Amino acid sequence: MLGAVITLVLLAAVAYAVTQVGGVITLLFIAAILFLAYKRLSLLTFTATFTVLLAAYTVFGEASAPAGAWKVFLWVMLALLWLLNVRPLRKAIITRRFMKTYLKLLPAMSQTEREALEAGTVWWDGELFTGAPKWAKLLSAKPPQLSQEEQAFLDGPCDELCRMLDDWDITHKRGDMPPHVWDFLKSKGFFAMIIPKQYGGLEFSAYAHSCVLAKVSSRSVTVSSTVAVPNSLGPAELLNHYGMEDQKNHYLPRLARGEEVPCFALTGPRAGSDAASIPDTGVVCRGLWQGKETVGLRLNFSKRYITLAPVATVIGLAFRMFDPEKLLGERADLGITCALIPRGTAGVTIGRRHFPLNVPFQNGPVQGKDVFVPLDYIIGGPKMAGQGWRMLVEQLSVGRCISLPSNTTGGAKAATWASGAYTRIRRQFNMPVGKFEGVEAVLARMVGLTYTMDAARSVTAGAIDGGEKPSVPSAMLKYHVTEMGRIVANDAMDVHGGKAICLGPKNYLGRGYQVVPVAITVEGANILTRSLIIFGQGAVRCHPFVLREMTAARNPDRKQGVGDFDRALFGHIGFTISNAVRSLIMALTLARFTRAPTSGATKRYYQHIVRFSASFAFAVDVAMLTLGGYLKKKENLSARLGDVLSCMYLASMVLKHHENQGRPDADLPIVEWACRNLLYRAQEQLHGFLRNFPNRFLAGVMRLLILPRGLTYSAPSDRLGLSLAELVMNPTESRERLCRFIYKTLEPTNALGLLQEVLVLTQTAEPIEKRIRVEGVKTGKVTALELPGQIQQALAAGIISETEAASLREYDRKVMEIINVDDFAPHELGVQAQPSAAQASPVSGIHVA
Ligand SMILES: Cc1cc2nc3c(=O)[nH]c(=O)nc-3n(C[C@H](O)[C@H](O)[C@H](O)COP(=O)(O)OP(=O)(O)OC[C@H]3O[C@@H](n4cnc5c(N)ncnc54)[C@H](O)[C@@H]3O)c2cc1C
């Protein structure tokens, strides 16, 4: 309210100043010009409309001396504008010269980098770069849906798998999945979700694939990590898209049946994040293969961290291919290439294991010394030599949207589901701990973030099923969903206190917490993804003009290049001016008059996204124009711009998810929390960007156009947080919707089912407990300190009935079953520990058992 008053006063002051210098008509004229810029007209339409307006202004405008000079200035400007409409002229005078300088500033780009940049498609991410996103593009997309067959798989084999898992046995005792689980995964097609039906695979939609991972992940992260890998970037995916027919016919059915277990080996001791710098080589040479002299590859490689490698039967291998003797053609350095190497090939060393943070999915090193294989081991055959990097980045744009986001979301759903119930049943200071404001705030964050993660996962999977290969969103999901997962995992640990810290069969959170850094590190470590990839790739791929300008500037057909560059350049200039005006107007009006696709409770969030989109697009242009290639080195600035883009993307996913679920009113507090949280962060990151922008003058100008009223957007309120916490501390429909697809069947070994059972029982147990407290404890009729004694005394005193006493006893027993933690004899912990002398000899008198 205060902000609105300040704005009105400011606007009135500016209007007054303008009218004093020029008059009311000058004010109207300026407003009309700003409106034209806001509306983003083409240069010709703008010039024509400007001409009419200026003529009218000249005739009817004020006739003072300053107004006269101002009009002359405007007529000169108009003349220049008309000149800019003469394309041959502007090409000769402006475009050609500018293009020369532009080419010099353009950072050199390797083939590899270009392929990475061009991989995948541009989707909603592109709209957010325009400053005026077209909501119909997002909202008209069909909500993702499971087919009958996919639903049956989730309810059938997927549930059966979850039922048979004993995560403590897997993670602590065995350090692996038991043989019957391996067999079940292979025989039921868990490793074949992306393999087409014609090869015996399940050919699931991206959405179904994601839901399966989320469910399995809610039960065991070791198993979900194992399932994720064969369905992600690896042999099956690469064969599907690039394999030769006989390679597909040989491998895909075997992979679908689980007769082959794949892994994909890219990372090595010297090449981690900078994966394109792998030193592993494949040299084309002649050698003996099955007794015959053959032209093949001699491979030398050393890889580490390779998931499934210890048990893999076929290794997808990335290496640099060289042809020094020019046996295949003229090029000696062919570039990164991918091949499939059977485990038993001479020279391959495989089988040892790494131990990733107590989550013992199979992971280990693979080495190869002078391994000779024929050329048709290359995926796609010799014609695909050197195409490896393109293949990897193209497929990453899909895989990265699914595996980690789905596993992490499944984990977050399970953690939020458990925490809502646990904080309701766990009492301290005579209150459920979840009712304390401090815990409430943490629960609210868990709910809001889990909803955001789920929205991003499901809406983006839906887009993939609609034919997109969204490469920039895949990086955004990878980074933000796993970072949110880290917060949710920490929060869940905190609200559970010691219960979550003591590992054992009764601990349903510890392994999920431990695995978080794995998700943060793999498929592009998070710091790198945030600092370099999201904005770096987005700025070129999604910007409506940058890629067009770069391609035009590099076009060897100079005439065509200049023409294309000219169109892009002048489009770009108009775009930047329009975004500056749009940013200013929407920031001043808090986007109240911006068009939104809905009129309900979510309208304001749509409007704010459009506002931030204009501010973001303007800031991006100023940054790119002034910093050029140096922006790549200013990682913190790029990262902040990437955050703004991601926050807008995620908030859009939240709104679309709400629509997809039929706009349930009950979920509105969560939608509001999620959008507020994201848009507040977008504002903070823009603020941080401006504070750190090296050119302080430009930073000031940008601040005036982006945040003229200061930081007006506020984070979710405490009151809102309370509503979110209530939604998961009660057995509500919102809780069910939020945590859909986790394994919560009621059975003795499933904590998620047991927690729900007890949460439902609190509805009847709490009023009885309250009566005991009010009528018994406070009046002195009940003196026992613990609930079982209190029940006994309350029954004797006639405060509760026999039936109520029985149900409360049963409730208390179930609550304590959950609250209790495991303890162990010392020798049960540590693989080499032996029973201590004290344990072995009770005679010592200090028997510990
Ligand atoms: C459990 C596990 C499973 C894996 N599975 C596989 C697999 O199946 N196949 C496979 O090929 N690989 C696999 N990996 C490898 C994984 O992809 C790499 O660990 C990852 O790419 C990071 O490499 P690194 O660990 O060597 O970290 P480094 O490259 O050493 O990076 C260290 C830190 O520096 C940061 N950093 C690096 N460069 C930059 C930069 N330019 N700007 C900002 N920050 C930067 C990174 O973000 C990271 O935080 C796995 C790894 C693990 C741990």
- Please mark out the parts with pLDDT under 50 across 5 or more consecutive residues, or reply none: 837-849
End-to-end Cα distance = 66 Å
Question: For this entry, what is the oligomeric state of its chains?
Answer: single chain
Q: What ligand molecules are bound, each kind once?
A: flavin-adenine dinucleotide
How many β-strand runs? 9
Structure, described:
- This protein is an alpha+beta fold and 849 residues long.
- Helix content is 61%, strand content 8%.
- The chain is built from 34 helices and nine strands.
- Strands 1, 2, 3, 4, 5, 6 and 7 form a seven-stranded mixed beta sheet that branches. A two-stranded antiparallel sheet has the order 8-9.
- Strand 2 and strand 3 form a beta hairpin.
- The longest helix has 38 residues, at 388-425.
- The radius of gyration is 32 Å and the shape is flat.
- It binds flavin-adenine dinucleotide.
- Flavin-adenine dinucleotide binds next to strand 1, strand 3, helix 20 and helix 21.
- Flavin-adenine dinucleotide (FAD) is lined by residues 263-267, 272-273, 305-307, 356, 363, 518, 521-523, 525, 527-528, 531-532, 635.
